[in-house]
Design goal:
By secondary structure, the chain is of the alpha+beta class. It folds into four domains: 79 residues; 225 residues, Beta Barrel (Lipocalin), CATH 2.40.128; 95 residues, Immunoglobulins (Immunoglobulin-like), CATH 2.60.40.10; 260 residues, 3-Layer(aba) Sandwich (Rossmann fold), CATH 3.40.50. 16% of the residues lie in helices and 35% in strands. The strands form 13 sheets. A six-stranded antiparallel β-sheet has the order 20-21-22-23-24-25, with helices on one face. Strands 29, 31, 32, 34, 35 and 36 form a six-stranded mixed β-sheet that branches. It has a six-stranded mixed β-sheet with strand order 38-37-39-43-44-48, with helices on both faces. α6 runs parallel beside α10 and α10 crosses α11. The relative contact order is 0.07.
């Protein structure tokens, strides 16, 4: 029996009755309001895409409700809706799931049969838009098998024979193998695989399955789940091979194997993690995947698992190609910090605060240091404490700026770095002139503070077009570096008291020169200043580690000593006390599409390292995943640089506020690059736990 309005609740004053559930059956679910003590005419309010699960009254005469999206929302006394927590999941209901012949590209939808998208394992990027050619819908019938009553039914049949489902198990999706020798059924309880006679071959109970299909000539079974994931299974026995989670923001994503080896977009590696129990009497610990990046970030394994149909074989092949030891990665648990005081949202008026926090090291290694960050930048550290693994309470004094800020505290235990615990603090004391104008949403004018108190901007721009190896050469990387510096130099006397720049192009961009100037950038930038690093050229991944390297002018991908490791770049700039912004345009195709050493370079891991909470660096990267960064004589630049220069020239200041902030640049560059490249290039911005801040003033 259907009960479309099974969930009810009265307002606090008893004047309004609210009812929800599965009403209406199709499309957006609504909450029906009855005024006048429940006797008034019904008023329908759009609530969520999923079933409304609960409705509770709020003191102001409204309601708070939860839905299966999952979504948490509020209706005020007038019935106006406000979302408190939106769903992070793609909605796989409907008929959007498709797959390429090899199963390495899938099409899906972020909303119920709307917002179509596709994801390519080869390219490692989400593309919005209708599915391209070569992506086939699931087959629903074949000569040897006829499936009936499977659409939203509890009694599906194969050739007239009732299939053995559990009571109340609703069937949602069907895919028949080419030739009709077997079929997949997605149900409310999981994924089932039957042969043509209706005999069940295997089942996987991992939650509701909304869509299914076959690929790789029937060797792969692909299913889209209610938890937002798309998963690949070995069709012969149901062994899961790979899972993909596209976040509803349509930018972040993560891929992982059952053992935890993963690949992720910038900002995507914290979407999954490890749940570690501590017994019945204590809450479990959770560690995001980023804490284990060194051992489990393995895009090379991800690339091989669908081809081998076996995770262990994929790992062995990747290790052999990269020259890695065959030993499995170890899960070394990092230390855990919890800030006890101040609390999130507290106000402060003093130039410093005592942070009281608890710390423990569940991995057993003694803690060696505790660090504090303000808006992502180094602020304080504690090393003089009992170096044990057990729980202890500690105090750290942190000097704070006279403004609202975000403070994070995290601990280290050897090489293991823990998740930061974070609080937002509100400054309610007297502000400097510049801080007051920032609080009102404007960048300070040059005269607001004396020159010695205004920030300086330090810029290191590296662009390599004329590589020593002619086959690596590009058209506009060097010009891009000069053009970025030119637009930033216009900020002298405006947002910054001074703009100090260093440009290394072509033959100047040797490994030693870049390292020297990175040191210069680190030493010159104070806590008041901003540092920008621009890199344009080629990036390559070390086959033995998968780690990113920048290719200097004389770099040779086969000689590690000629490359500049991303880890060395990170170590230097992460120690800068001021704000740090990195502009990364090193995924160029240019004239090297036939050069395998430079093809398929992936900077995702490097970007995630730079933008991690412990590094706190804002990163703009020109292209997602393994996409190529495009340049053209029509623009006279790379697409990314052209968009960035336009953004700082005022195009990103949509509201004409007089400032161009990080978030404004992100929005403008993302849309502009897609426009310039007809959607072939998708820039990505990775922002750690920092507040938005201006990078320039509009002309």
């Amino acid at each position: 029996m259907k009960r479309p309005l099974a969930i009810v609740g009265w307002s606090a004053d008893g004047e309004t009755l609210a009812a929800g559930g599965t009403h209406p059956t199709e499309g957006t679910k609504r909450i029906r309001l009855f005024r006048s003590g429940g006797r008034g005419a019904p008023i329908d309010v759009d609530a969520a895409s999923g079933t409304v699960k609960d409705i509770k009254a709020t003191p102001d005469g409204g309601f708070v409700f939860g839905a299966a999206d999952p979504l948490l929302g509020v209706l005020n006394a007038n019935g106006a809706r406000r979302v408190l927590r939106d769903s992070p999941l793609a909605d796989h209901r409907g008929r959007a799931l498709r797959a390429s012949q090899d199963g390495k590209t899938v099409a899906f939808a972020f909303e119920y049969d709307r917002a179509p998208a596709s994801f390519s394992l080869e390219e490692r990027s989400v593309r919005m838009g209708p599915p391209g050619p070569g992506l086939a819908e699931p087959l629903l019938a074949a000569k040897r098998v006829a499936i009936s009553d499977w659409q939203s039914g509890t009694h599906p049949k194969s050739n007239g024979q009732l299939l053995p489902l559990q009571p109340f198990e609703v069937s949602h999706a069907l895919a028949v193998a080419t030739g009709g020798d077997s079929f997949l059924l997605g149900t409310e309880f999981g994924l089932r695989h039957f042969d043509s006679t209706g005999k069940e071959l295997w089942q996987r109970s991992q939650g509701t399955v909304w869509a299914v299909t076959f690929a790789a000539e029937g060797r792969l079974a692909i299913a889209a789940f209610g938890d937002g994931t798309i998963r690949w299974f070995r069709a012969s026995d149901g062994q899961e091979l790979l899972a993909f989670f596209p976040h509803a923001d349509r930018v972040r994503w993560v891929l992982w194997t059952p053992s935890g080896y993963y690949d992720a977009s910038p900002g995507g590696e914290d979407l999954i993690g490890w749940h570690v129990n501590r017994g019945r009497d204590r809450e479990a610990d959770f560690f995001s995947a980023s804490r284990f990046r060194a051992g489990f970030y393995r895009p090379d394994v991800i690339s091989r698992v669908l081809g081998t149909l076996d995770e262990a074989r994929a790992l062995a092949q990747a290790n052999e190609v990269g020259g890695r030891k065959a030993a499995p990665a170890k899960l070394v648990l990092p230390p855990i910090v919890r800030i006890l005081s101040p609390s999130n949202g507290d106000a402060f008026t003093t130039p410093s605060l005592q942070f009281r926090f608890s710390a423990r090291s569940p991995g057993g290694a003694p803690m060696t240091a505790v660090h504090a960050r303000i808006d992502g930048r180094p602020a304080a550290e504690l090393r003089a404490f009992e170096k044990g693994a057990g729980a202890q309470e500690l105090v750290l004094s942190v000097a704070l700026p006279a403004r609202d800020c975000i403070v994070s505290v995290f601990a280290e235990a050897g090489d293991a770095v823990g998740e930061p615990d974070t609080v937002r603090l509100r400054w309610v004391g007297a502000a400097t002139a510049s801080e007051a104008t920032r609080a009102r949403g404007f960048s300070p004018a040059p005269s607001d503070d004396p020159p010695e108190m205004r920030p300086k901007l330090y810029v290191l721009a590296v662009g390599v077009s004329k590589y020593a190896d002619p086959s690596y050469r590009l058209d506009f990387a060097a010009k891009d570096a000069r053009d970025v510096v030119a637009v930033l130099e216009k900020q002298k006397g405006r947002l910054y008291s001074d703009v100090i720049t260093t440009v290394l192009t072509d033959e100047e961009a040797t490994r030693d020169n870049v390292v020297d100037k990175l040191d210069w950038l680190q030493k010159q930038t104070t806590h008041l200043d901003t540092a920008i690093l621009f890199l344009a050229g080629h990036g390559v991944n070390d086959p033995s580690t998968g780690l990113y390297n920048f290719l200097p002018v004389a770099g040779n991908p086969d000689k590690r000593s000629t490359l500049l490791p991303g880890s060395e770049i990170k170590t230097t700039i992460a120690s800068i006390h001021g704000k740090v912004v990195v502009l990364l345009d090193t995924c160029h195709a240019g004239n090297v599409l036939n050069e395998p050493k430079l093809r398929g370079g992936d900077s995702n891991g490097f970007v995630n390292e730079l933008s991690s909470a412990e590094s706190g660096i804002v990163v703009f990267t020109a292209a997602a995943g393994r996409q190529s960064s495009q340049e053209s004589t029509k623009w006279g630049n790379g697409a990314f640089t052209k968009a960035f220069v336009e953004a700082l020239s005022g195009e990103a200041d949509f509201r004409k506020t007089g400032r161009v902030t990080i978030n404004m640049i992100d929005l403008y560059v993302s849309d502009r690059v897609k426009q310039l490249t007809s959607g072939q290039q998708t820039p990505v911005t990775a922002k750690p736990m920092v507040q938005d801040f201006p990078l320039a003033m509009s002309p």
